Amino acid sequence: MDSGKTTDLRDGRLFLPNRTVLLADPVRIRLAAYLDYRNRCWPRTANPHLFVSQTTGCGVEPVSHVWINDVLGMPTSRLREDRLLHEAEAIGGDPLRICDLFGLSVGAALRYTGTIDQPGPIEHSLRNVGPAPRPGPE
Predict the structure, then answer these.
(1) 49: exposed, middle or buried (Cβ count in 10 Å: 0-12, 13-18, 19+)
(2) pLDDT digits (tens, 9 = 90+) for 69-108
(3) Residue 22 CA to chain centroid, in angstroms?
(4) Which residues partner with 49 through β-bridges?
(5) Which of 27, 40, 45, 63 is spaced 20 to 30 Å from 92 by Cα?
(6) End-to-end CA distance of the chain
(7) Phi-psi region of 19 (alpha: psi -120 to 50; beta: other; left: phi over 0)
């Protein structure tokens, strides 16, 4: 998304090269707030990219992956994976919906949706604990 442009956003949609993503209302609200902030900080910028920084606000180049990771506090790949897993659980494991939302192949979507019934590490250890041992006669 570092090379995304403000012109890719219109009519509540994100227009990507191979697909169009309908943006949910909470996303639209946050995006509008960010664009207001962007316009206040760089009112005369010619930079067409969605994200601008103090360095790129005076030019037309995109921000770097390093800048995005620093701002988010984590790699974008981890954020995407988190969103994929959350959405897979929220929609009950429908792989076709994951394909539509994230532009994944069916195989990739099945890898994510296949995790929703898997217990986490704590649940796994709690489920696999047998009955408490009985104290023996002393």
Answers:
(1) buried
(2) 998 898 988 988 998 898 888 888 889 988 888 888 999 9
(3) 14
(4) 5
(5) 27
(6) 67
(7) beta
* 127 close to 118: Cβ distance less than 8 angstroms: no
C-alpha 45 chain-centroid distance: 27
Name residue, tokens 């986490």.
120
pLDDT in tens, 20-49: 888 888 889 999 999 999 999 999 999 999
Express each pLDDT in 104-136 by its tens digit: 899 999 988 888 876 555 554 555 555 555 666
Q: With beta carbons less than 8 A apart as the criterion, state whether 89 and 116 touch.
A: yes
Q: How far apart are CA 53 and CA 29, in angstroms?
A: 21
Query: Residue 108: which of 92, 79, 85 has the closest Cα?
Result: 85
Question: Which is nearest to 47 in space by CA: 111, 82, 38?
Answer: 38
